[in-house]
Structures are given as C-alpha cells and as structure tokens.
Amino acid sequence: MRIRSRLFTAFATAIFFAAITGARAEVSEVTIAQQYGVSFLPLMWMEHNKLIEKHARALGLPELKTNWAKLAGPAAITDGLLAGGVTFSAVGAPTLITLWGKTKGNIGVMGVSAVTTYPLYLNVRNPNVKSVKDFTDKDKIAVPAVKVSTQAIMLQMAAEKAFGEGNPYKLDPFTVTLSHPDGMAALMSNTGGVNAHFTTSPFHEQEMKIPGVRTLTTSYEILGGRATALVIVATTKFREANPKAYGAFVAALKEAIDGINRDKKAAAQRYLEWANDKKSTVDEVYAAISNPDYAFTLTPEKVFKTAEFMGKIGTIKDVPKTWQDMFFPEVHNLPGN
User: Fold this and answer.
1) Any idea which of 60-64, 190-194, 205-209, 316-320 has the lowest mean pLDDT?
2) Does residue 283 contact residue 265 with C-beta atoms inside 8 Å?
3) Cis bond leading into 119, ω under 30°?
4) Does residue 67 sit in helix, strand or coil?
5) Structural class in CATH, domain 121-223
C-alpha cells in the first residue's frame, strides 16, 4: 500500500507539473499585420530575413512560426487584434491611443514601440483649393480610414486650426476610405471624385509626378514638428503569457531598424524587390528614407500630443498622463514624447 501511495503521489506530482508546464507553454505561431509603403520596411526586413525566428531560437522557442498579413487599413487590423487573429500590428498613433483607452482592464492593447517617423502629405489636384478651408462637397479626400486613421485625425487638427475651437469635424464629410495604392490610383484618374489624398512615401513621390498635383500641408506642419507615423501594438494578455515570443519580436525589430539605418541605399533596393514596386526607383526611395525628416526608430514622437487632442475633442475618454502610459516598459527609457 505504501508503494502504491508513493506511486500515486509521484503520478499526481507529475500531472501537476505537467499542467503547470502546459499552462506556461508559449504560442507556436504569431501573426504580424502591416499595410503598404516603405514606412513598413522594418517589418518587411524582419519577414524576409526571418529575424523573429532567429531570436525566438535564441530564447528557447525553436519552432515559432510567423504569419505575415497585408491589410488595407486600420479597421481590419484592429478587428484582427481584438479577435486574437493578429499578434503584432503596425498602426498609426491614433489607433494605438483609441485601442489603449478601449481595452484597459481586459486584453490591454499597448504600444510595443515606434517604428517609423515621417511626414504624411495632403496632396491635392483641385487648383481652387488653396487651404483646407477651400474644400467643398465637390472634393473627396482619400484616407486609409475615415475618422480613425492618423490622416483623419490630422485633418481634424487642421480643421480646428482653420475654423476655430469646436470645429474639428468640418472636413470629415469630404473623406473616403481607400488604401494608399487605391488612393493614388483614384487621385490619378479622379475616380469617384477623389481629388486629394493624405498619403505617405513612396506614393507621395509618385503623385508629385502627376500634372497639377501639389502638397497642401503635411502632418509635421499640423503637429508642429516631427511625429511618429507608425507604432507597433500588441496586447498585455499576449505579452504576459508569451514573454519569449514577445522578446523575440522586440529584438528582431531592433535588429531590422539597425540594419536599415546602416545602409539605407541597400535598404531602398530591398524595398523595391520585396514590395515588387515597379513605379519607384532606388534613388527615389533612398531620397525619401534618408531625408532628415524620415527616421526608422523605436522612439515615439508626438504621440502624447495626439492623445491630448483626441481627449480634448472627445474621441477618447481616458487621456494618458504621459506617453509611457500607452507603451510597454521596454521603451520607457527612450526620449519619447
């Protein structure tokens, strides 16, 4: 009986530790969502050089699988993140700010880090539009997502500056949701009355080749300086359950950014190959990403200022006290704002 008791105790102990081990087992795959354009080059670099897999092996996850999804706008990315189908995603700062406020206390969407700081360009082809005050119901402005994308929030900031306090939504009726490739095509052909596009590189450079198209303003002008355009987001729930997979992603992102910044000319060439971009040249892409206003960096810039504005107009209920409130601790020591 004593032997049986010992065997039962040993068996029960084995089951207990197996349960603990199973509970602590990390995910076997992650899904990363992104959109289109050279601003997503760090993620493309990670994908094609298999950097997440490399760092996962170093952290003891030899079989971690990565899935890469190209989605047209923040709405699809947000749905995937909230449903658990997307693990990490690159979004604009307003999307992070919105999700941070809405998911506090449950899955807890937070910023992993910034990715790319660059200007967004409001390009127009209507010669009568000299300022944002001149848009009418005859104009359509293409943005990645109405009301919620970075471009949509920038238009709200611009509207309040132009029309006065309490008028942030004056330009909203003129916006339409289109991905950047579709927005550029619509601007070129005036499809659906689209004669303006709030865009990014390399689509901006292509649009500048269209006769009559010019830049009306930029996100830097609206915000008063350099500003993060893309951040990476993930859930607190995932980070706490999968510290190795999370750490592998962060290490891979840092390596990708360092690699791009070491040789931007080579990075421009890689972008053209990976994006299958036949319209841009190496020199055009290199000129864009080597501009002092363009930076691949983990450091957030003007994310807090955007959050303050969104809080002021009621887009979010909870306003962070600092930019760190919206980001995981790994980047808190960076000189962000």
Assistant:
1) 190-194
2) no
3) no
4) strand
5) alpha beta
- SS3 label, residue 275: helix
How far apart, in whole angstroms, are the C-alpha atoms of residue 311 and residue 313?
A: 6
C-alpha angle 270-276-277 in degrees, rounded to nearest 5: 90
CB half-sphere exposure, 131, CA atoms < 13 A:
8
Residue 71 pLDDT: 74
Are residues 198 and 121 in contact, defined by beta-carbon separation less than 8 angstroms?
Answer: yes
- Collapsing DSSP to helix, strand or coil, 205 comes out as helix
Residue that wins the pLDDT comparison between 76 and 16: 76
Would strands 88-91 and 214-218 be described as parallel, antiparallel, or unpaired? unpaired
Tell which residue, 296, 292, 303, has the closest CA to residue 336.
303
The whole-number pLDDT of residue 192 equals 87
The answer to whether 194 touches 187, Cβ cutoff 8 Å, is yes
Q: In this structure, are residues 142 and 183 in contact, taking their beta carbons and an 8 Å threshold?
A: yes
Evaluate whether 28-117+227-331 and 121-223 have a shared fold.
yes
**C-alpha distance from residue 271 to each of 40, 82, 147, 276, 325 (Å):** 9, 30, 30, 8, 33
DSSP string for residues in 91-141: E-HHHHHHHHHHHTTTT-EEEEEEEEE---EEEE--TT-SSGGG--TT-EE
Q: Give the right CATH number for 28-117+227-331 from 3.30.465.60, 3.10.25.10, 3.40.190.10, 3.40.1280.10.
A: 3.40.190.10
Residue type, 294: Y
Among 252, 279, 282, 255, which Cα is nearest to 267's?
282
The domains of the chain are located at 28-117+227-331, 121-223
